[in-house]
Amino acid sequence: MVEIVDSQLETSSILSEAQSDLSGAVVLFLGTTRQYTGDLETTELEYECYREMAMKKMRQLREIAIHKWKLHGCAMVHRTGVVPIGQASVAIAVSSGHRKAAFEAAQWLIDTLKREVPIWKKECYSDGTTEWIHPQ
Amino acid sequence: MKMQVQLFAAARQLVGRNQIEISFDADQPPTIADLRKTIQLHFPELKRLASTSLFAVDHEYASDNDRVSENQQVAMIPPVSGG
């Protein structure tokens, strides 16, 4: 399961998508909107994506992870539009026979998604300013 | 030849449009490096961001030496920040 949605992430359905009776471990990673980054207060994040390419890239990453870590299930969902404080912008759920593979796969998937998938966040700060985040 | 380039995030905001048209008069199809230079020339507001952006051709990242033709989908991909 790979999706890009514009509403609140339903983590229980994402988890059940990844779960399998063959698995001994399920890892769910959620990336959430953080209120403070240093001294800056964020009021909300707004995400934008290049949909066709982002879906293609996420599907590619999922296939690589399933193959490399012999996953039984893998679900990746990213939210776009406004994501309020405390809510999740991304969910990655994987299952495998043992926990090591599940932890490693989930870590690799979120790290690689953040580097390669064409999705961008705009910080909306408490002083009313906004800033697109383009890491150098 | 004319080429449409899709813009996102700060690039889209700086230009105020989600797509720009770039013209080339050379005989052979431009490379990604040519495309970047031409964008920087015609859209000075993108000068800095274009230098750190990647380009995608038909939904795959392209390298500077790759050539693009008119019927392909081209997008400027500023450094990503999903997750």
Task: Reconstruct the topology from this structure.
The complex is a heterodimer of chains A (136) and B (83).
Chain A: E1 2-5, H1 11-18, E2 25-32, E3 36-37, E4 40-49, H2 51-69, E5 73-79, E6 81-84, E7 88-96, H3 99-116, E8 119-125, E9 130-132
Parallel strand pairs in A: 1-5
Antiparallel strand pairs in A: 2-7, 3-4, 4-6, 4-8, 5-7, 8-9
Chain B: E1 2-6, H1 9-15, E2 19-23, H2 32-42, H3 47-52, E3 54-57, E4 60-62, E5 74-77
Descriptive account of the structure:
The complex is a heterodimer of chains A (136) and B (83). Helices cover 33% and strands 40% of the residues of chain A. Chain A is elongated, with a radius of gyration of 15 Å. Chain A contains 3 helices and 9 strands, in the order E-H-E-E-E-H-E-E-E-H-E-E. Chain A is α+β, with helices and mostly antiparallel strands and 136 residues long. Chain A has helices spanning 11-18, 51-69, 99-116; strands spanning 2-5, 25-32, 36-37, 40-49, 73-79, 81-84, 88-96, 119-125, 130-132. In chain A, helix 2 (51-69) runs antiparallel to helix 3 (99-116). The model of chain A has no long low-confidence stretch (mean pLDDT 97). Chain B is of the alpha+beta class. Chain B contains 3 helices and 5 strands, in the order E-H-E-H-H-E-E-E. Chain B has a 5-stranded mixed β-sheet. Chain B starts with a strand and ends in a 6-residue tail after the last strand. The model of chain B has no long low-confidence stretch (mean pLDDT 96). Chains A and B meet through strand 4, helix 2, helix 3 and strand 8 of A and helix 1 of B.
Characteristic terms for this protein:
heterodimer; A: 136 residues; alpha+beta; 5-stranded antiparallel β-sheet; 3 helices; elongated; B: alpha+beta; globular
A few lines on this structure:
The complex is a heterodimer of chains A (136) and B (83). With 136 residues, chain A is an alpha+beta fold.
Mind summarizing the main beta sheet of chain A? 5 strands, antiparallel
SSE class of chain A: alpha+beta
Can you write the helix and strand succession of chain B as a string?
Answer: EHEHHEEE
What is the straight-line distance between the termini of chain B?
Answer: 37 Å
Average pLDDT reading of chain A: 97
Broad shape of chain B: globular
Q: Please give the alpha-carbon distance between the first and last residues of chain A.
A: 31 Å
Walk across the major sheet of chain B and give the strand order.
2-1-5-3-4
Q: How would the global form of chain A be characterised?
A: elongated
